[in-house]
Specification:
Order of helices and strands of chain B: EEEHEEEH
Number of helices of chain B: 2
Number of helices of chain A: 12
Distance between the termini of chain B: 20 Å
Number of domains of chain B: 1
Largest sheet of chain B: 4 strands, antiparallel
CATH class of chain B: Alpha Beta
Helix content of chain B: 10-25%
Order of helices and strands of chain A: HEHEEHHEHEHEEHEEEEHEEEEHEEEHHH
Strand content of chain A: 15-25%
Oligomer: heterodimer
Structural class of chain A: alpha/beta
Number of strands of chain A: 18
Largest sheet of chain A: 8 strands, mixed
Largest interface: A-B, 25 and 25 residues
Strand order of the largest sheet of chain B: 3-4-5-6
Chain lengths: ~425, ~100
């Protein structure tokens, strides 16, 4: 792997940037691996990278049914934050932010992590009380989060309408300065490049059709479109399609898959300095470095694998955006899309071992998996390499749905998050 | 937007009149006190999450207010049929034949 540096940039400038080598080889699968990761999204690629980097496991293959980073990694709204209520979540998400902090240097790839701050608007008395509770809980956990007045919110984000005449007037906001955005594609590409440099094979356009188990019940490998591939361990990180793959190994999960939609506007000059989210009117918005407004919508009410989603949601979201930011009323939208998200009953992830020996799962991130990409990959790699949970993912077991020890962020956020 | 047929109103109406109510045909435990933790988990949390034909409940909230069941293809979002609550699961083979090839993924 040729390292990126100011010097290499200058050297390639002399030849008109025409001779950059491929960033990673498009591998063909070998017959056998120590670890197979199903799903080449950010989470799967990060797991492969940390397996190679921190645990010395380099005989690893990452398989994807489509192209690398073409699922939810390329479909999210790129927001990174860690202001979750419960101790378990706050610690795991904050661990991810710690990793985000030095990620570009670690990967030698600019993931454009921009800590521009995330503002969560409170519109009702209930919001105010619930957010202040979140802030107190966060500060006890060492997670940065601050209560700000609506005037301060307007100072930070000038397009915000704080008029008391608004349909849902802004009463104040929770402000996490450490949060922000990152370039989603670059995260997948950066991890892929760094993992491939350490010997990981990344195989695209190779759907996994089933997981094969031996007579003793343990994992033997995976059936794919390119034939059977043997593996000692298999880690499934397939987001919305996790249920389908895990079913083939005889593991039924507490997951339901929903389409989650987002949309972008035409690009404009810098106008929006941070990320603003509102749970009450359910819309969130930021501006990409290209200048497009990136707007997140909600999940459809019905389960689906259609990667489209219905228009009523988009209409609702855009109405909310126009109400909060009247300046955007004449903005034209360029495109909208959907990704399939896997949602658990308590809206917290399942990350760890399964009842099948050698089979691991990383799923259930629901509508908010991008922000935790480095943290999920890092702890999943630990779990796979040592066959035991990392202290940070230990509470996120599958067993919690039997024992009742839920991490109920669903009730805490009052919406999908 | 989905167009959904309410078997009680005998009318096909926009999705906005309806509320999705999860997977259908999940029977409540007959004798809850004898249920093990694993059985409670399966009843409360484990879902089929089918990629393809899915049995599901809908409620006509802005109409008759009643619950009914449906068979929908979760890849195309196309409804194969809707039927009243309490009626048995329809035969998928016959439904697919009636719906023609396009619904069969």
């Amino acid at each position: 792997m040729a390292r990126f540096s100011a010097f290499s940039l200058m050297r390639h400038a002399l030849t008109g940037h025409r001779d950059w080598p491929a960033q990673w080889p498009d591998a063909e699968p070998k017959a056998e691996y120590d670890v197979i990761v199903v799903g080449a999204g950010g989470h799967g690629l990060a797991a492969a990278y940390y397996l190679a980097k921190e645990h010395g496991v380099t005989n690893v293959c990452v398989l994807d049914k489509g192209w690398l980073g073409g699922g939810n990694t390329g479909r999210n709204t790129t927001i990174v934050r860690s202001n979750y209520l419960y101790d378990e979540s706050a610690k795991l998400y904050d661990h991810a932010i710690d990793l985000w902090d030095g990620l570009s240097q670690d990967l030698n790839y600019n993931v454009m992590f921009s800590q521009r701050g995330v503002m969560m608007l409170a519109h009702t008395v209930h919001d105010v009380q619930s957010f202040q509770r979140h802030i107190h809980a966060n500060r006890l956990n060492g997670v940065d989060n601050l209560w700000i007045s609506k005037e301060r919110a307007k100072e930070i984000c000038p397009p915000l309408n704080i008029s008391p005449d608004a349909r849902y007037p802004v009463l104040g906001a929770a402000w996490q300065q450490r949060a922000g955005t990152a370039r989603h594609d670059a995260v997948a590409w950066g991890y892929a490049r760094a993992a491939a440099a350490r010997g990981v094979d990344i195989v695209q356009n190779c759907p996994v059709t089933a997981i094969r188990r031996g007579p003793d019940g343990a994992v033997e490998g995976v059936e794919t479109a390119k034939g059977f591939i043997k593996a000692k361990k298999v880690a499934v990180s397939a987001a919305g399609h996790t249920s389908v793959i895990m079913e083939s190994a005889g593991v039924r999960l507490p997951l339901e898959s929903f389409p989650l939609q987002a949309l972008v506007s035409e690009p404009v000059k810098p106008v929006f300095p941070c990320v603003v989210m509102s749970n009450t009117v359910h819309a969130y918005i930021s501006q990409s470095d290209k200048g497009e407004l990136v707007i997140g919508s909600g999940t459809d009410q019905y389960t689906s694998y259609s990667q489209r989603g219905g228009l009523p949601l988009i209409e609702h979201t855009v109405a909310a955006i126009c109400e909060m930011f009247p300046v955007f009323r004449r903005m034209r939208m360029l495109r909208k899309w959907g990704g399939i998200v896997d949602v658990t009953p308590d809206r917290s992830a399942i990350l760890g071992k399964t009842p099948v020996p050698g089979l691991y799962v990383n799923c259930g991130w629901g509508t908010g998996g991008f922000k935790v990409t480095p943290g999920a990959g890092h702890t999943l790699a630990h779990t796979v390499a040592r066959d035991e949970p990392h202290p940070l993912n230990a509470p996120f077991t599958l067993e919690r749905f039997t024992t009742g020890r839920l991490i109920d962020e669903a009730a805490a956020a009052a919406v999908a998050h | 937007m989905l167009l959904i047929h309410c078997p009680y109103c005998a009318a096909t109406l926009p999705e906005l009149e309806f509320a999705y109510a999860g997977e259908a045909h999940i029977a409540r435990p007959a004798d809850p006190s004898t249920f093990s933790d694993e059985q409670w988990r399966d009843f409360l949390f484990i879902r089929t999450n089918a990629r393809g034909l899915h049995f599901e409940r809908w409620r006509h909230v802005h109409g008759c207010g009643r619950f009914f069941n449906a068979v929908r293809d979760t890849v195309s979002d196309k409804f194969l049929t809707t039927y009243k609550a309490g009626e048995p699961k329809p035969e998928l083979e016959a439904l697919l034949k009636a719906a023609g090839k396009d619904a069969a993924e």
